[in-house]
Every structure is written in structure tokens, then in C-alpha cells.
Automatic annotation (TrEMBL):
Keyword Kinase: yes
GO molecular function, one term: ATP binding
Name of this protein: Mevalonate kinase
Signal peptide stretch: none
Keywords in alphabetical order: Kinase, Transferase
Lineage, uppermost ranks: Bacteria, Pseudomonadati, Bacteroidota, Flavobacteriia, Flavobacteriales
Entries under InterPro entries matching the protein: GHMP_kinase_C_sf (IPR036554), HddA/FKP (IPR001174), Ribosomal_Su5_D2-typ_SF (IPR020568), Ribsml_uS5_D2-typ_fold_subgr (IPR014721)
Organism name: Lutibacter oceani
SUPFAM superfamilies per record: GHMP Kinase, C-terminal domain (SSF55060), Ribosomal protein S5 domain 2-like (SSF54211)
Length: 308
């Protein structure tokens, strides 16, 4: 048995903002993927995954929802026969490792599942997101459902607000000098503590005002520029966003990267932003000259996401 592949995702814009109902743009990232597999002889890693699936099965048994039903007897039997999730997606890196797992389980065991092949109306997208939110809450305590949705559909998704999503197209990649890239912090981040810090900060009126006025404004402008291919304007807005994040989200940025972050803003060679909840994992970068940026950041591991 080998299930279909489900890809990692990258939230290009909108981290934390989508919790507060501003815009977001998520794209599939097919460098990393995962699939359900079965084996009689499990390696240590596969055995751990199999044990985690047992815990997840227990969670689904107790899940109270009228949105979806699962073929749980079949799921349990497969786990007993040595099923595991074979994944190259790094965990705690903000690229949706649990999202791909959730997508694969919905795909295999959900009754009357919504498929990519049908006409994906806004209502269907919203229903999928709600189902995935409940399914993924097992991993993070609270989930928007966006990671599994992106992984399941393998399409760029534009989040206009909590209740308004659409599958979207992004400009095709060009062989230009510019790039979106990932910078590996080589630290594993955890979503839940970061979200807790954010929620506590949201109790502060000044912080809320900054989110509503600055963070949301630049995030929305970046998404608009990116989708319309306005690269010149995009870099101006990403610079503003990078500054806002450095000034207001310091706990989410590993301390070792504060200077590197500031250096990008000062030199205009590259701009950094959070990738997912932060606290470690990947940091997302934007540059108009990827070759030059690679030399400047030669001490770090960079991965190319998108060229323009």
C-alpha cells in the first residue's frame, strides 16, 4: 500500500494576521511531501509514526462533529497492519508537516469527501477548512485548518477572511534574478507557545492597533502585488512588513537572527519575514538578486521557493 503524495505548504503572507481575520496567501511547496504507507518491518522512525497514528485514531474516535464521518474500522485495521506516514516534511519548521498528514487521512478515510476534481465553490472550501481545523487541532491545540487544506488541494489559496477563501492562480515563475527563499534557522519551533505569546500580546490595545493598521495593511498590499506581478511595489511593501515584524514580533524571531534581519532592511539586499508561527524553523526571504543574497548569507542554508 502506498497512498497519494501530499505536499508541504508555505504561507507566503498572513501569518498571525489570519488569526485576526486579515488576508493570507498560501502556496504548495512540493520539495517536501508525505504519504501513508504500510510495512511489516517498521524502522524506528516508522514505528514512532505508527504509534502517533494510534493516538490520532483515538482523537478521531472522540471527535464530536457533524461535518464529517470516517471509516474508523478500516483506519484502525490499517494501523494494526503497520501503517505509518512516510514524510520528508521537516517538523516544527512552519511548512505544514501535520497538515499533510491530516490531508492524507481525510483523503483515505473520510466518507463523502469533497474532491479537487469537483467545482470548488466557496462553501465547499469553507466546509473543508472547518473539517481540517477540527482534525488538525489534535496537533496544535487550535488550528485554522489552512495547512491541510493547502496540502489536500495542492493549489494556491487566497484567504480574504475567515469565511472567504478562494483557490487562486499565481504568476508563473520566470528565470529572473529575484526570488522567494527559505532560510533555515536550524532550530525547531513549536506552534502552540508562539500562538499563546501572540494572543497575550493581543490583549494590549497598542499591539491590536498595530495589527489592524500596519501589519494588515502591508500584508494585504504584498498579496495584491504578488498576485498581480507588481514586483517593484512588492519589494517596497515587503520591506515595510519586515520592519513591522522585527519591531513587534521579536519573541517569534530567534535571537540569533535579529541582526541578520535588520541587515537586510538596512542594505535592501533582502527582506525577511516569518514563515508560519516562528520561534525557529524556516524564515522566509525575498530578494531582487538571489545570487548576491546567497553570497551575503553564505553561512546559512537557503532553499529556493519561487523565482521572478
Amino acid at each position: 500500500m502506498k497512498g497519494p503524495l501530499f505536499y508541504a505548504k508555505i504561507l507566503l503572507f498572513g501569518e498571525y494576521g489570519i488569526i485576526k481575520d486579515s488576508k493570507g496567501l498560501a502556496i504548495p511547496y512540493n520539495t517536501y511531501q508525505g504519504a501513508l504507507k504500510k510495512s511489516k518491518n517498521l524502522s524506528e522512525v516508522s514505528k514512532k509514526s505508527n504509534e502517533n497514528l494510534k493516538k490520532y485514531f483515538d482523537y478521531l474516535v472522540g471527535l464530536e462533529t457533524t461535518l464529517v464521518t470516517f471509516r474508523l474500522v478500516e483506519f484502525k485495521k490499517d494501523i494494526e497492519e503497520g501503517m505509518y506516514f512516510d514524510s520528508s516534511i521537516p517538523q516544527g519548521y512552519g511548512v505544514g508537516s501535520s497538515g499533510a498528514l491530516v490531508a492524507s487521512i481525510y483523503d483515505k478515510y473520510a466518507d463523502d469527501k469533497i474532491t479537487v476534481l469537483e467545482n470548488l465553490t466557496r462553501d465547499k472550501l469553507l466546509k473543508l477548512k472547518q473539517i481540517f481545523s477540527k482534525m488538525e487541532s489534535f496537533f496544535h491545540g487550535k488550528s485554522s485548518g489552512l495547512d491541510p487544506l493547502n496540502s489536500y488541494l495542492s493549489l494556491p489559496i487566497l484567504i480574504n477572511s475567515k469565511d472567504n477563501l478562494e483557490a487562486t492562480g499565481i504568476p508563473s515563475q520566470k528565470e529572473g534574478k529575484g526570488a522567494v527563499f527559505l532560510l533555515d534557522s536550524e532550530i525547531i519551533g513549536e506552534t502552540e507557545p508562539m500562538v499563546t505569546i501572540f494572543m497575550n500580546k493581543m490583549k494590549n490595545e497598542g499591539f491590536r492597533k498595530m495589527i489592524d493598521e500596519d501589519f494588515a495593511k502591508y500584508t494585504d498590499a504584498c498579496i495584491d502585488d504578488f498576485l498581480h506581478g507588481n514586483m517593484k511595489s512588492l519589494f517596497g511593501n515587503v520591506k515595510h512588513l519586515s520592519k513591522v515584524v522585527l519591531d513587534n514580533f521579536k519573541p517569534m524571531i530567534p535571537t540569533a537572527f535579529h541582526k541578520v534581519w535588520q541587515k537586510g532592511i538596512d542594505s535592501n539586499d533582502y527582506y525577511l519575514k516569518l514563515c508560519g508561527s516562528g520561534g525557529g524553523g524556516y524564515i522566509l526571504g525575498f530578494t531582487e538578486n538571489f545570487e548576491k543574497t546567497k553570497k551575503i548569507l553564505k553561512d546559512y542554508k537557503l532553499e529556493l521557493v519561487y523565482r521572478f
